[in-house]
TrEMBL record, chains A, B:
Protein's organism: Sebaldella termitidis (strain ATCC 33386 / NCTC 11300)
Function statement: May play a role in DNA repair. It seems to be involved in an RecBC-independent recombinational process of DNA repair. It may act with RecF and RecO.
CDD domains: TOPRIM_recR
Protein name (database record): Recombination protein RecR
Keyword Zinc (UniProt): yes
Amino acid sequence: MKSLDNIIDEFAKLPGIGRKSAMRIAFHVLEMEDEELLNFITILKEAKEKIKKCEICGNLTENDICEICSDEERDSSIICIVKDSRDIIAFEKSKTYNGLYHVLGGIIDPLNGIGVDDLDIDKLTKRLTGNVKEVILALDPSLEGETTSLYLSKIIKEKEIIVSRIASGIPMGGNIEFSDIATLSRSLEGRKEI
Amino acid sequence: MKSLDNIIDEFAKLPGIGRKSAMRIAFHVLEMEDEELLNFITILKEAKEKIKKCEICGNLTENDICEICSDEERDSSIICIVKDSRDIIAFEKSKTYNGLYHVLGGIIDPLNGIGVDDLDIDKLTKRLTGNVKEVILALDPSLEGETTSLYLSKIIKEKEIIVSRIASGIPMGGNIEFSDIATLSRSLEGRKEI
């Protein structure tokens, strides 16, 4: 059935959904009440229409400026650079950071043809004015993340702003025994006197 | 953000999608091109409109009668009863069955308030005419599946039709060591001389 295959294909395109899950979801959707499906579609459309990127930091927002950038309680002297808005949600949940963010929207990834020019560096450098004292690089500790961090740190240091990088090491609850070499080596490098 | 929460909630309602996956999918959808999202929505609507249940067996189809029921090459003297259309797809992939199917659409599940009256037994009994020689019960080997099988077998036997049940036991590639007691006991019960 063409229309069944189509709907399965569409769900299989979503991130983290394999063929079997896509089929399960497709059957679920086919069994929905018409009204329920219309509601689902309306919510998709509405979210897509209302949500845009913050003009300052690139975070998702329903306004021109996001909640974090417009919050005067937050420390605007410190900016944490993340790959995308999901990372902001993760940090916000931890409730340990009160500065601002900057969403890079991507990282340098030569294998997938993403170079320096594909990152919106201008938007970032415009923010690196007198008020900013520290920039925290919070990109994934992968080869691409490291490359991007190195590149950005050079640009930021030129502005005489402190650059830091979030610690990487063995996650809480993790095992030394099952940690990979790179993580162990990072955990040693980043050791702290107690 | 209300509209972001809404879209995450919607995806989290789909089967097999947890909160984290729902968030990942929501962000993916927000990053889609407008055209891409419209296409996605069109495919959902189209599938929902076109796909209905076969008038004979209850399988999903774009026509009044499904491909299997209308295939004259298939053996109409044998009917395999399954819970839903997905099970038909699984059996058809195995290419080992050439009879017809009957989709029950549910199984007896008193804990969830599904009783005998909620199953469309009439549709099934109407098919149990002179031509049918055997009915295979292919419901999941769970308490609910077993109860339903027992109930159906009584009705079918009254019509003097052979009733069989698919074998349950240790799956191909499975381990005896890690099999649960019920499976092991089933595998012994169902042993065959070789």
